[in-house]
């Protein structure tokens, strides 16, 4: 895909008082390690990083009025905070904490450097229009599994508001404050051992019933094996994740979409997605998973990207009935 920016070598820097050509803000905390990266085409931080945000109150994610995006992550070498901002053709990244270098090394992959948007060919007007309207869409790769697996498990069989609330409460209560000058209220998610030690009544307090809590506990007990999946091909990674009882195709797809930037990991078993895809591509409000997969077959290899574009198009069937209602733990 033709880009707005001429390809140039990526540049990195570790600075004490600011980035090259970027003055330090008066009174601001001392900068962390830093990197400047030049993407080879349009880049929209909101579109690329938005799927990593688990609701507006996600304590691991913050978008600030100056256009920056902050993420707090538990990396293989420790907690870290990453701030990224796009400025006219280049991306500025700063990071703090033990995981700072790990996050900066992988910043291009996080922002879709390994993605190949040109591999996608729209074959439907809805997709073509949205494709043209979102040139900055890239599928980013976090390289981290548990930070997507745990919230995806929390989203099983409940409303998004319930799941977001559980994630917010558990991370704030058992996580650690984000390193560096992160915006207030940001936290790094708990380490695997901490997740394993959360008492049953704290899961219940967060609205998480025993089944989902048990799935999280099984996953964190084999945390090393789970994180190893980040180095596998998406299909093999999904197979590794689904060995954990309670992790099925819906959950594994949601994970590798984020951890791997997997363009073909279409989500099946979703309450709303088949109807949205069916309506957008065929006017079929009642499409099931089988019909959705049939409609997405022309995009084999890029089915997740196609589904993402459909969601971004805003073209859906509307709601004919009430939304799924929030339920108490006893009903789950």
Automatic annotation (TrEMBL):
One GO location term (cellular component): protein-DNA complex
Keyword annotations from UniProtKB, A to Z: DNA damage, DNA repair
Membrane-spanning parts: none
Any Gene Ontology biological process: base-excision repair, AP site formation
InterPro entries given in the database record: Alkylbase_DNA_Glycosylase/TA, DNA_glycosylase
Alphabetized GO MF terms: alkylated DNA binding; DNA-3-methyladenine glycosylase activity; DNA-7-methylguanine glycosylase activity
Name of the protein described by the UniProt record: 3-methyladenine DNA glycosylase
Entry keyword annotation includes Isomerase: no
SUPFAM superfamilies reported in the protein's UniProt record: DNA-glycosylase
